[in-house]
Amino acid sequence: MSLRTKQTIIAGLSLIFLISLIYVQRMEVVRRQEESGIIKPHIAVPSSSQDCVSCHLNSTPGIIQHWEGSTHAEKGIGCVECHQAQKGDVDGFTHYGQFIATIVTPRDCAQCHQNVAHEFEQSHHSKAGNILASLDNFLAETVEGSREVFNPHSPTPGKAVSQVNGMASAFSGCLQCHGSKIGFKAEDGGMITVDDLKPDKEGHPTVQKAVSRILRDSEGKPIFHEGTWPNTGIGRLNLDGSKGSCSACHSRHDFSPRRARQPENCGKCHLGPDHPQKEIYEESKHGVAYRDLKHKMNLDSEKWVLGKDYSAAPTCATCHMSGHSKNDGKITHDVGERISWTNRPPVSLVMDTDKDHKIVVETDPGKRAEKIHDTALAKRNRMKAVCTHCHTPSYVNGFYKQYDDLVILYNEKFAKSGKKIIASLRKEGLITKTQFDEEIEWTWFYLWHHEGRRARHGASMMAPDYTHWHGMFEVADRFYMELIPQAREIAKHASKEGLDLKSSRVNRVIDQILSRPEHKWFKEGAEDAMKKIRKNMKSRYGHRDV
Amino acid sequence: MSHVSNWIQKRIPVDFNKLSDVTNEPVPNHMKLWWFCLGGTPAYLFMVQIITGILLAMYYQAGPSVAYESVRYITEEVAFGWYIRSLHKWASILMVAAVILHQMRVYFTGAYRKPRELNWMVGMFLLLCTLILGFTGYSLVFEQLSYWGATVAANITDTIPVLGTIMKKMLLGGDGYNEHTLSRFFILHGAVLPVTMILLVVVHIALIRLHGVTEFQSNEEPPSSKRHFDFFPDHVLTELMLGLVLMILLSALATVFPASMGPVASPLQTPEVIKPEWYFYVTFRWLKLFSLTTAVVSMGFIVFIMFVWPFIDAWLVRRTKVSEISVWIGIVAVFIIVAMTVWEAAVQH
Questions:
Q1: What is the spatial distance between Cα A141 and Cα A437, in angstroms, rounded to a whole number?
Q2: What are the residues whose beta carbons fall under 8 Å from the beta carbon of B198, sequence distance 6 or more?
Q3: Predicted ipTM beyond 0.85
Q4: Contact residues, chain B, for A6 at CB < 8 Å
Q5: Are A82 and A70 contacting, i.e. CB atoms less than 8 angstroms apart?
Q6: Closest CA to B111 of B223, B43, B28
Q7: Distance from C-alpha of A397 to C-alpha of A391, rounded to nearest angstrom
Q8: A436, A442 in Cβ contact below 8 A?
Q9: Do A3 and B237 touch (CB under 8 A)?
């Protein structure tokens, strides 16, 4: 080859290389434009999911369109990547040549989001399914419904009703937030759940006898028990042994981070008479600021770091989960990591937790210190790091003093007293062991489960009306006007029936409680206190009746 | 112009004409054949690796908690980060391939024979350095393959008789994978190995220049014809063409198949299937065929044989009087290597 030919070839190759660099530059510009939202991201359907997309575009176009708007689609994560089942997965079935599963569990998401899944696993959210064995579930399954199917009273015109499903309230209510125990229909008419399958570490069932009993359709697809699926409850008990559902917050199939950052997302479950966090937030200045400044929240930003990407207002995610400028933007999916009190039980507990993330209830200081793995103080300091983006340390500390005082007031004045009275009645056998079959049990439940929580949650999130009128006011009303009279009445009734000793023991407990300084006003009157209040009013407003 | 030349000449008292004579060594005619340029190819790719590696090191952070995120940052957020990382990845793959092809060319043409035995051994060191660079490179990403690959490598090292345990400790910076392991890999990958390679390449090229390139004569070439051509500009232009083709190829691979990221490393989750990069398939398959200690010791023995092959070859030729015996042994060895690589690639476990 002559030198001239070589030079010509080099010139040609240089031109091709230059064109390739221009192409790279173009790719970079397009990438930046997509990131900043100037142009819509190009979606390339992964080859493994081409068939799924072309078919589901007609059968379920919404699913495809949602997916097209997702980060997954932008990154080339298609249907198969999440829905693909592994050999041995109990819920796997062949669907047009692909071995897939309907339900995507945290174990599946962990293939890519390992750390997030691990944090979530540690959280109280993932354990929300524990309600299946709690008092609340007794309410839904027995008091509101029935654990056994029963016959209808009379025909329903236009609807053939042969049997009544007594679990309907639990299935459509409690479990849609807390999570169901996913079940397959069994060939013998029963249900097969994780308890029967006993999955191993890899999530594969170990009891093949249970697998063989699963009812399948003509394609071999296992048939879900309708009561347990559909369900996106956050503590769902999955067939592979994993707990939870990522789609509880990251709605499928667009998995929008923007939506997960908004309080309305949490409001699917955190609302209502017993845990109205959403309404409490809306009442607070945080919620007011959010409504006003939502357009400045930069909700579409990739990382959404408080103090860097936005500062306009906090949402639920901001305080409890999101990264901020003081922790290098580290997000947590353990929602309890920054919570220092649990206000869920009748008596609030300090969130000193052991290595299994369980609250330490040990009272001996030495033993307690040994068991604590993560202190409530450390959790509070993590929350304070969020607060101090907008508030001074003295302001934050002042708030926490007010919050602590309210929780302790509720605990000491009403919760421990009420608990003692109910315990005394039960110990003396004056109320049955069955919950909710006596009026006083409903009274006590309203007091702590509804009103008591509202007061504590209201104080925790700066909502004065929920703390007072929907909270402590109603707690006090329930305690003095219902719980005490009803307990006295039960004792009186017992006395009439000749159970004087039991009656007097219950009355003694009530008397001891009411003789304490904080309850003295109820027994002995409070005219002196009223006089002082009237005097103050007069000096401030100049007349008596304001 | 002469004023400038004089100024330079006074400050750098080197006779550039003599230097030109030294560097412009006559190149044998066979070097006009493309497959004889495979020695320049890895050198060129090594330069690409150094430049892209420096750019990547500006953002990379070595540490289990930050490594993966820093690679993600490079890939997704840094301007042209994805391109630089993809070039680095593809250049590493092509470099391994080029080194292997170069070694095969040297082997089958007998270019390692007396007096070039030592340069063959330098080349063997360069091959090992290239493979270790590849291994430490993908360990830095801290994805599942990185973590479990390093863990498997540490366990293999542990089985080496006598020195295994201490070597494993030195590799990992402790008894097991810990927070110091990645920084060791990073220093090896970004400093120790590249500097070692630069020194070895200098020795490699110096020995080539001192011995001269092995000359081959084509049967079609009349004995009286001119047997050499000029290094400059003839050979330099050939290398430049090759470099441009490589750069276009790299650019195309980087844009069509950009470097992606696997799942983040999880010490708690052992992957069901783990496979190293393709160039370790043969060793991986070897490990599966025998008990770990047998496989490691036999592999060490094979590498030793490869190192001292020029001397073994000379002994075999003397003994058998068959001058091409190494070619037949080479064909069998290549067949075994290719077969085991394909075998490993074809099966899941």
A1: 14
A2: none
A3: no
A4: 234, 237-238, 241
A5: no
A6: B28
A7: 10
A8: yes
A9: yes
| Tokens 């190494």, residue located | B326
**If you search the block for the tokens 């103080």, which residue do you land on?**
A377
φ/ψ of B327, rounded to 5, equals -65, -45
Q: Which residues 259-288 of B are in CB contact (within 8 Å) with A?
A: 263-264, 266, 268-269, 272
Please tell me the distance in Å from A344's CA to the nearest CA on chain B. Answer: 32
Is the CB of A21 less than 8 angstroms away from the CB of B244? Answer: no
Which residues of chain A have a CB within 8 Å of the CB of B83? 24, 27-28
Q: Where are the alpha helices (DSSP H) in A284-392?
A: 285-293, 316-320, 365-371, 376-387
B229-252 burial by CB neighbour count: b if 16+ within 10 A, else e? eebeebbebbbbbbbbebbbebbe
Residue A22 parent element (H or E):
helix A3-35
* Cα B309-B158-B100 angle, rounded to 5 deg: 35
Q: What whole-number distance in Å separates Cα of residue B244 and Cα of residue B248?
A: 6
A273, HSE (Cβ side, Cα atoms, 13 Å): 8
Identity of the residue numbered B224: S
What are the φ/ψ torsions at residue A331 (nearest 5 degrees)?
-85, 150
- The one-digit pLDDT tens for each residue of chain B (349 residues) are 578 888 888 888 877 777 666 666 666 666 666 666 677 889 999 999 999 999 999 999 998 889 998 999 999 889 999 999 999 999 999 999 999 999 998 899 888 988 889 999 999 999 999 999 999 998 999 988 889 888 888 988 888 888 889 999 998 988 888 888 999 999 999 999 999 999 999 999 888 878 776 666 555 555 556 666 666 777 788 888 888 999 999 999 999 999 988 878 888 777 777 788 889 999 999 988 988 889 999 999 999 999 999 999 999 999 988 888 899 999 999 999 999 999 998 887 6
Nearest CA in chain B to A2: B234
What whole-number distance in Å separates Cα of residue A384 and Cα of residue A458?
18
B244·A17 Cβ contact <8 A = yes
Nearest to A426 by CA among A347, A512, A482, A490: A490
Domains (range + CATH), chain B: 31-212+231-269 (1.20.810.10), 276-349 (1.10.287)
